């Protein structure tokens, strides 16, 4: 299905949790194990009533979900998530029962509901999680220094697929920040994540299999693709020549548009948002045809052979046949193959015959 910017959520498969540690990595693990419907949950011989987006159990189960072995560190992570407004949790000191509730929970989505089952918790590694698009915006607004999992999830929740204002997203799921954010720069991401440019570059080198970059000419920036996104159909990374062709089509559409107080990067982002609808129907033509791939030799309609002769301007004969005068004058002729029988009159000029033949003109 299409994943447009107007949708409030994106799909995050439960078998593709963010790598490494961080605030958003912990949130994703907690949300992936929360109840997807109201019901009764069984844990360690206890029956707990849970609501959608909540979980009930003990400290041991919490440490298993977060992947943290230390009880103190696990509770510190829960406190950080609570302070940032991501969850609410409660720990009963007597019974050691812990319950948490995901606050940013997408209640309505277009996915098929799970029917005919008594379970309220999703099976680990099965299905996908509805991830709100603005889940990481809270960290950016608070000027929080992103961890690796935070940056990874930030790129994922800003992925678009077949967005009408982004022609490149109709080939591969593409990362886009806002309406005018189809093309990104390492400086922009570093400012958002609180990183230096070199750290941003190392991040993309490490996760090049999931988020490959494609540099655009000049100072436009780069495109960031999401090759792990569940688009529901097979796709492959576009060739640089194909991206360049689409970029030129957009530049042609915006050549008469004047934008004041804007650099090349911002201008190209605006052109992509405005003129992608004109370029999207031409994407099928941008793919090279199999016949063009097989035949890479240009075929000419006629064969032209250019030859140079030295004629004597006094006796009008070739230099080899000249009987006395050695002064010569260069002359240039085009010799064309005969395409048919002779049809016109001929002129005799020193042994070289000119005439008109069927299918070609010899002069």
Short descriptors:
elongated; 16 strands; single chain; 3-stranded antiparallel sheet; alpha+beta; about 30% helix; disordered C terminus; about 375 residues
Summarize the biggest pleated sheet: 3 strands, antiparallel
**Stretches with pLDDT under 50, minimum 5 residues:** 288-311, 317-339, 356-363
Share in helix: 25-40%
Rg, nearest Å: 34 Å
Shape: elongated
Q: Percent of residues in beta strands?
A: 15-25%
Report, as a whole number of angstroms, the end-to-end distance. 64 Å
List the topology elements.
Elements: E1 9-13, H1 23-32, E2 39-43, E3 46-50, E4 54-57, H2 59-66, H3 71-83, E5 87-91, E6 98-102, E7 128-132, H4 137-141, H5 148-157, E8 159-160, E9 174-175, H6 186-193, H7 197-206, E10 213-215, E11 222-224, H8 240-253, H9 264-279, H10 283-286, H11 290-294, E12 305-311, E13 329-335, E14 347-349, E15 352-357, E16 360-362
Antiparallel strand pairs: 1-7, 2-3, 4-6, 5-6, 8-9, 10-11, 12-13, 14-15, 15-16
């Amino acid at each position: 299905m299409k994943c447009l910017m107007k949708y409030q959520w994106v799909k995050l498969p439960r078998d593709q949790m963010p790598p490494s540690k961080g605030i958003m990595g912990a949130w994703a693990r907690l949300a992936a194990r929360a109840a997807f419907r109201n019901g009764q949950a069984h844990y360690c011989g206890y029956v707990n009533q849970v609501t959608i987006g909540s979980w009930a159990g003990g400290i041991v189960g919490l440490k298993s979900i977060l992947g943290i072995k230390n009880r103190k560190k696990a509770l510190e992570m829960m406190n950080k998530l609570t302070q940032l407004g991501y969850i609410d949790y409660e720990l009963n000191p007597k019974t050691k029962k812990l319950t948490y509730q995901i606050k940013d929970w997408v209640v309505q989505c277009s996915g098929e509901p799970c029917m005919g089952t008594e379970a309220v918790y999703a099976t680990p590694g099965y299905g996908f999680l509805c991830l709100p698009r603005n889940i990481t915006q809270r960290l950016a607004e608070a000027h929080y220094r992103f961890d690796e999992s935070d940056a990874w999830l930030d790129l994922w929740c800003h992925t678009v697929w077949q967005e009408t204002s982004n022609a490149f997203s109709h080939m591969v799921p593409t990362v886009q920040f806002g309406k005018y954010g189809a093309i990104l720069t390492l400086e922009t991401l570093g400012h958002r994540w609180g990183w230096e440019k070199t750290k941003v570059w190392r991040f993309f080198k490490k996760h090049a299999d999931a988020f490959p970059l494609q540099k655009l000419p000049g100072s436009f920036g780069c495109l960031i693709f999401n090759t792990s996104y569940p688009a529901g159909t097979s796709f492959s990374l576009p060739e640089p020549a194909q991206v360049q062709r689409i970029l030129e089509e957009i530049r042609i559409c915006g050549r008469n548009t004047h934008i004041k107080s804007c650099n090349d990067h911002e201008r190209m982002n605006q052109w992509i948002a405005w003129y992608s609808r004109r370029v999207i129907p031409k994407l099928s033509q941008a793919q090279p045809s199999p016949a063009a791939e097989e035949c890479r030799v240009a075929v000419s309609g006629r064969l032209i052979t250019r030859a140079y002769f030295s004629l004597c301007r006094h006796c009008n004969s070739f230099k080899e046949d000249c009987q006395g005068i050695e002064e010569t004058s260069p002359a240039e002729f085009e010799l064309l193959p005969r395409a048919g029988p002779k049809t016109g009159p001929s002129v005799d000029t020193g042994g070289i015959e000119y005439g008109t033949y069927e299918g070609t003109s010899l002069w």
